Amino acid sequence: MLNLTTREISCCTEAIGISKVLLVSPYGFVSKYARNPNLDIVAAPMGLAYIAAVLEQNGHKVYALDCLVKSSDKRDVELHIKREKPHVVGIQAFTPSVHYGIEIAEAVKEIDYEIKIVLGGSHPTALPEATLGMSDSVDFIVRHEGEYTFLNLVNALEKGADYMALKKIKGISFKYNGKIINTPNAPLVMDLDTIPFPALHLFPVDEYQYFGAKKEIYSLISSRGCPYSCEFCASSLIKKWRGRSAKNIVDEMEWARKKFGFSGFAFMDDLAALKRDRIFEICNEMRERGLDFAWGVTARVDSLDKEMLTEMEDTNCRCMFLGVESGSQEILDRMKKGITLEQTRKAFKWINELGMDSIASVTLGYPGETRETIEQTIKFVINLDPGVLVMSAATPYPGTPYFQRALEKGWLPKDLSKIDWRDFTMYDAIIGNENLTRDEVDKLIGEFYNRFRRRLGWMFKRLILDIKQNQALYGNLKGFPLFKQPLTVRLLTRWLFHKSMGKTFDQQALITTKSLATHLKQ
Ligand code: B12
Ligand code: SF4
User: Fold this and answer.
1) Ligand number nearest to the C-alpha of 154
2) 202 with 63: CB under 8 angstroms?
3) CB 3.0 to 4.6 Å from 282: which of 20, 88, 246, 338, for a disulfide?
4) Do 89 and 159 lie in a common domain?
5) How many structural domains is the chain composed of?
6) What's the confidence (pLDDT) of residue 12?
7) CA of 300, closest atom in ligand 2
């Protein structure tokens, strides 16, 4: 006998016919990439775009709302809901955006309680119970990869699923009879080539930007999963690495060029360069098809070698994004990063020799960090001479060993409902460690940025790299549209930014966030 409260009845649904699904990327949070003047990345939510593609392939009507790009607020979401009257609303939630996702869920339920709300993404995957506990407005959580789990859920809701039917869907969590039900994990998609290309036509493609330029660089996800276990990293939630074939990847590049006009490709997956052979195959495939797209890759320093980088550079790979994390071997070992300082040195030496751009990602404030290890890191990074520096305050994301340690040490409250997830942005430290307070970590991040940027050698290098980037994207400087925005405007903005009234990066970034917050309140 079912014993359901009014709220819980929402799980056992009336048949809804062909489903209209709205997918939302919440407002309220500016990523650190968008705030770094040398990156200025506002990337498409590819996870939602893949889900949309699979739903469309299976006959559902899908809409998307990327609130970040459109600067949408709660009112826009409400208008959208009233106009489109979706049956299901799927919301993507990172840790710093889960609060806003819940706010959207509650606004939707206020309009129509029958609309089913599903949350997916890194945060609800790591903490399904706590996320369901945040609000009665969330009906379901989809854990891990969403394409087929969400499709199964939408199909089941369409038929008016009861408890028994819902329990059979792998990879979901929901409330039933006062309890939270976590069905077993869904199998991973082993052959990624079988997933259709992302349904980007539903998203404001013209608005996404890399390095301040819109509609030039496409975010490409060439693999999923990571077999490593860096203790601070939320990517290691799915260990099994799976790579798409070179043919399928280059097909997507050609498709994206033809359909949307992209001329560059950023491989945004964590470990695109994990398999050496596959990188060579991608280069060959591009060469055989006569393609000279500019491209860039995220990689571990220990997966690179000179021959591979030379091959990549030869097919117009312009930029490498590498996790440097620290200049102290002891901190790297504590993080279980599994790399040596020597491997990092070599990788940057090769990249610089080849004249490629590079982005070094550094994390400060990890347990064991001291002023001395930070000083070592500053010197180490300056010697590496990367094109761009991205800094993060060590942040214990749910699902990571670092999160567990922060709970054990009492750095975070054990009662998760007392944590304000909005603070988990990585810009500002949310906890200190045994040696440094939060404020000290923040101050040291600001100083680090300033010491890195206020070097004439680096400014000159940046200028040269910017010219090369534009050459790579536009083929030659003659065809380079001066007024479209690239070089002149971008360089000027950057120059002014660095010079701007002696403000530090963090102060400037704070201004950006504050103006966004003001905008949202209006
Ligand atoms: C590309 C990327 C970005 C891009 C684009 C982000 C975006 N809008 O999708 C940029 C550079 C903008 C970015 C920014 C940030 N990112 Co990021 N990013 C990634 C990265 C490297 C790949 C994401 C991706 O596209 N994967 C491929 C797609 C297919 O997978 P997916 O996004 O996970 O989506 C699948 C499932 O999660 C699920 N799913 C996702 N959403 C939904 C929604 C519904 C309704 C359903 C049913 C399912 C579902 O189904 C999808 C398809 O299988 C991941 C690392 C990783 N391995 O995932 C980090 C990652 C997601 N980012 C992370 C973080 C912390 C951030 C920032 C907060 C960093 C910062 N301070 O700026 C911001 C947040 C931005 C925001 N909008 O809130 C963390 C998230 C940790 C956490 N618990 O929140 C990750 C895991 C990195 C890490 N190792 O820690 N990021
Ligand atoms: S930091 Fe990179 S290598 Fe380490 S677990 Fe995360 S994605 Fe994997």
Assistant:
1) 1
2) yes
3) 246
4) yes
5) 3
6) 54
7) 3
